[in-house]
Amino acid sequence: MKKRILISSLIIVALFASTSVAQADAGSDYKLAMQQYKTAVANWNLANKTNQENFQSAMQSWNTAAKAAGLAREEIASNFKRDAEAIKARTAAAELAATNAKDKKAALTAGKSEMDGVIATRNAALSAIVKPGPKPIKPTPAPSPTPPVKPAQTAKAKPSGSSVTKSPDAPKA
Question: pTM for the complete prediction?
């Protein structure tokens, strides 16, 4: 009799111990997965932050280059406008000072060739301006890591006292 009690108690203990070990394993696996998830999230945040900082510095460099190119174009345009107005004024003065048609034509031709030279100088200066290149593209963040799934807890067996349900239409006995 004592042997039977001892064996049955060992079997019961073994059954409950194996489930608690399984629960402990699931819990420790979840804790490990959660730690890996936290590390992955930290790495993901760091990568996104680095990409954003690189984009901001590239954008700042691009803006600086674009402003420099714009200022250079404005300077070239103002120099060209100033030179063109001076040529027009000299040509008009030479045309007024000319006494005959041949002198007028020579003054206009000289003014035209001088204007062509200024235009060629302006075009060469504009082509020498360094272009800022394409605008940097904002980085798209990588998808975030997915959190681990929490293991389901084993449900305790409920005592089955009155599991039979009676319909309300059943006759009373």
Answer: 0.59
Backbone angles phi, psi at 98, to 5 degrees: -70, 140
How many helices (H) and strands (E) the chain has is answered by 2, 0
93, exposed or middle or buried, with CB in 10 Å at 0-12, 13-18, 19+? exposed
- Widest CA span in the chain: 146
CA distance 108 to 138: 55
* Integer angstrom CA distances of residue 126 from 3, 96, 119: 104, 34, 10
Confidence bin at 147 (pLDDT 50/70/90): confident
The tokens for 53 are 């900082």
Query: Rounded distance, CA 40 to CA 46, Å?
Result: 10
Residue count of the chain: 173
pLDDT tier, 5 (very low <50, low <70, confident <90, very high otherwise): confident
Residues 6+ apart with CB under 8 A from 114: 87, 90, 91
Q: CA 81: distance to chain centroid?
A: 43
Asked if 126 contacts 135 with a C-beta cutoff of 8 angstroms, the reply is no
Rounded to an integer, the average pLDDT of 141-155 is: 79
